[in-house]
Amino acid sequence: MLFLLLVLLGISPVLAAESDFPTLLRQALLSNPELKQSQATIARRRAELTSAGALPDPVLETGLQNFEFARWSLGSEPMSGLAVMVSQELPYQPKLALRVQMAETDVRMATQELRMSTWRLYRELKSAYSDLSYTHQAEAVLTELRGLLRQMLKIVELNYSVGKATQADVLSVRQELSMLSERQIMLEQRRGQARIVIERVLGNARRPELETEVLPTLPEPNRMLGLTQLEERFSQAPELQVATLAIHMSKLNTDMAQLEFIPDPMFSGGVMLRGPLPAMWNLQVGLPLPVFAQRKQAPLAEAAAEAQKEAQARAEALRQRLIAQVRENLTMLQAELKQEALYRDVLLPQARLTIDALLASYVSGKADFVDLLEAWRLYLSYHLTLPEKQRNAQQALAMLEEMLATSLSYPALDKEITL
Question: Is the model's pTM score more than 0.90?
């Protein structure tokens, strides 16, 4: 009763529980397999950084040159000998620097993808947790209202015993009690579904005694961050950061496609050992002739330039979609908060006053049973709608937090989630 009274007064008590939301989130950050996969991807790409700007391996060649087939001529013929040569390709230096930049961009993209996965996990966990919290609040409502309905049943049965009520009235109240049992079963189903989601996010770390707290009270609509402030924040949203890095990567690919028109020289040198005769040495420089460059490389350069335009258009489309989603979720959140306040402060108290007045009038024979039953059903609907509105607001806020990559409910968690 105290819990329900606090909820009706708009006060959200936090139940001390080992499995509160921040604790579950910290556990998920450590055990979720999707995050572990993303972290391994970042580690792999960082390990590849050192090789990105490395030179190609030198080539060691050795060979024997003999003057004729019939006899061994090494040492007796000046053109016979054992040759040892080393060759090294030296790519154009800006190409190596560009490859390093591309590898670094790969790491940055993987990091932002990890942030994106982390905030998606945050939203999934918070949505499931708010579902679980809703089932506990709704169950408390059903427990209280079941007691009120049993009180009504006793009054109706008493009136029926003295001929002031019909058997249909008694059966109607009993039917309402049965319907409360049906609602209880549905709540248990939703609770099970929420637990499954939470366990999946935690990496199937089963918690059979999972408890919940009431999530922090949301701010009033007039205290919410303004739309301009929210839109400023999503410039750092991981999804938009990935798109921005994709533009940068496409530009690097375009630059590389242009640099590929410049051939890479090959330097080589070696000696020929000729037995008792003096050794011979040679130095060579090779340079590919770009005879077919226009035919082979020009289409690739054009494709890279078009890919850059595609990445820019995709990023702009994503930015506009994010703006629309932020506005949509903010509008939905504000509407849910206003409705939650309306149910909590106006509709629910009025419905309770109505049912109390009708119940007193029914006992004195001044009110009809049909009116009492309708008032009861309306009170039940309002009572269950209140925690539902609170849950909807939490889930709308979770979607906003995912898009903006910031926890508006638990600001202290930002540092733990931020990579």
Answer: no
